[in-house]
Every structure is written in C-alpha cells, then in structure tokens.
C-alpha cells in the first residue's frame, strides 16, 4: 500500500488564494495546536508525510506547496522570502488561525520562517528551524554584479547537484524518476514508500515527458533572497524566540554538514531565545525522510508546543 493510499482520514488538500493565484495547502490532524510546516527549495508538502504520522491526529499540521513548487508551481512571481512569508499569512487567514503555535521550516523553509517570524511575530509562536534558516555564507552584493543569475546557478549547482540538474530534464515515467534518485547518496540507505510517494507527487506533465514541478525561475529568485542578501540575517536579529535549530550532522550528499556547531554558536549569540541540537545519524534529507529523523523533529515540535 502506498503512502497516498494509507494517508490519515484527516489528510486533505485545498486551494488557498494568494497574490497571483492559489496555493495547494495540505493538512493532517485535527487537534488544537497548529504547526505550520514549510518545505525545502525544490520540495513540496509531501516531504512532511512521515512527520505527520509521527505527530499524530492531536496536532494540526498545515503544509503548503510554496509558490513555484508542487501543485502551486503555476503561481507566478514575485518570489523570494518576503513573498513566501506573505503567502503564509494568507494561509493562516484562510483557515481562521490567529497564530501558528509552531512554525517549522526545513531547509529553505527555515529562511522563510525567520522572515515570517520577524515581520509578523503576532502570527507566529516558536520557530523550529530544521537544518536551514541560518546564513550559510556571508551576503554578497549581487546587485553590483552583471552576471548575478549565472553565478547563483553555478553556486547552487555545486551544492544541490541532482536536485537542481533535474529541473532541466524530462523523464519517461515515474519509475525512471525514481531510478534517477535511487542512488542519491543521501537517500539510498533510507529508501522508503514515503520517498517514492514524494517523488511521484513531484512529477508534472505527461509521459514520456514528465518533469519536476519546481519552477527554475522561482528557485533562482528564492536563492537570491535566501543566501545573497541581508534580509535573512536582519530577520534573525529581530526574532523574539524561542528559536530551536535542529542540525543534521551530514549534508545534502551525505557528506559535510551545512552547519558546524561552532558556526551555530556564533550565529546563535545574536538570536533571541536560540538553542540547537543535533539529530543523530541523519543528513539534510533524512532529518525529514527517515523514521529516526521525523521522530526527533516531532519530539522537538511537541516540546515547543508544551
């Protein structure tokens, strides 16, 4: 039985109006505490299926496909962290939620979380940053460089590898797309029906020219505001806390981590209510896609919910 076939009876997806279109927004659970979950840069809400199972019915988990991704990939710009943060306010308004008890951001979702929490602290409770949301490199003045997009793509290509390469490819079937990912060093040891469900959902179009759903233009604009401008560092300094960071000891290719403990300590001194912890034996993907990772993230979310 696939993940999609065994989804909780409370799993549902609906369209939420935002500037320029509508986001596909998923919900699991029916409890009172609300966790708003924001996915990574080329992902979708389906990355949180295992987390939803770990949290159970007593927590209401709300997870949109961000504009330019998943079934929201037709929503045009503006893109960038502020645009995504505005979309999240529209999502909360649509569901009549005055304040998300926890805003959880994985990877790029962590950067959106920082901007959202800084600009609308009245709508956000605790922030849970899952291997993302803190600067990875000093901001570069790309507005002064005539080849900014070219440089961004080169830098991102070295970091993301297959996650970026696939946006220029087509696939003849869902099986071919799974095969493309099956030997990825970050996923092959933790391959599961959850991973397959996530990959199947990512495909759009018709066979034999299926493609990944992420809009490349959206990705490049998001990377610009995420990593190469001062928006996120400034937002982190304005957050009120608590801010909990969960670190994956291994990175996107099951190699060196995105963050060292020393870097987290240095950055954390400038963030109100900041603390961090490692999630044992995970990488940047399996902190969400492996049972041990999802269970640890769920435990941290429950602790913040109190």
Essential attributes:
Rossmann fold, about 15% strand, eight-stranded mixed beta sheet, alpha/beta, single chain, about 300 residues, two-stranded antiparallel sheet
Report on the architecture of this protein.
There is one protein chain. This protein has 306 residues and is of the alpha/beta class. The chain has a single domain, classed as Rossmann fold. The protein is 38% helix and 17% strand. The chain is built from twelve helices and ten strands. The strands form two sheets. An eight-stranded mixed β-sheet has the order 1-2-4-3-5-6-9-10, sandwiched between helices. Strands 7-8 form a two-stranded antiparallel ribbon. Helix 10 (261-268) links the parallel strand 9 and strand 10. Helix 1 (49-55) crosses helix 12 (291-305), helix 2 packs across helix 3 and helix 3 crosses helix 9. The longest helix has 15 residues, at 291-305.
């Amino acid at each position: 039985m696939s993940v999609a076939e065994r989804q909780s009876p409370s799993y549902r997806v609906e369209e939420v109006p935002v500037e320029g279109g509508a986001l596909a927004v998923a919900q699991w659970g029916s409890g009172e505490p609300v966790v708003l979950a924001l996915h990574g840069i080329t992902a979708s809400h389906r990355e949180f299926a295992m987390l939803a199972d770990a949290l159970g019915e007593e927590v209401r988990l709300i997870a949109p496909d961000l504009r330019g991704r998943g079934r929201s990939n037709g929503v045009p710009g503006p893109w960038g962290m502020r645009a995504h943060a505005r979309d999240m306010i529209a999502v909360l308004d649509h569901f009549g939620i005055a304040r998300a008890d926890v805003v959880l951001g994985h990877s790029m979702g962590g950067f959106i979380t920082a901007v959202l929490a800084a600009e609308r602290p009245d709508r956000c409770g605790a922030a849970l940053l899952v291997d993302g949301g803190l600067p990875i490199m000093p901001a570069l003045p790309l507005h002064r460089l005539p080849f900014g997009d070219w440089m961004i793509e080169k830098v991102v290509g070295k970091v993301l590898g297959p996650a970026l390469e696939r946006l220029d490819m087509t696939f003849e079937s869902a099986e071919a797309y799974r095969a493309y990912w099956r030997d990825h060093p970050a996923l092959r040891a933790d391959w599961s029906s959850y991973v397959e469900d996530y990959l199947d959902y990512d495909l759009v179009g018709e066979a034999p020219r299926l493609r990944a759903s992420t809009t490349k233009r959206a990705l490049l604009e998001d990377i610009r505001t995420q990593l190469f401008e001062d928006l996120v560092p400034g937002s982190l300094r304005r957050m009120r806390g608590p801010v909990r960071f969960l670190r994956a000891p291994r990175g996107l290719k099951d190699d060196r981590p995105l963050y060292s403990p020393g870097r987290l300590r240095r950055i954390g001194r400038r963030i109100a209510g900041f603390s961090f912890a490692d999630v044992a034996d995970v990488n940047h993907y399996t902190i969400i896609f492996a049972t041990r990772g999802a269970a640890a993230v769920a435990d941290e979310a429950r602790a913040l919910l109190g």
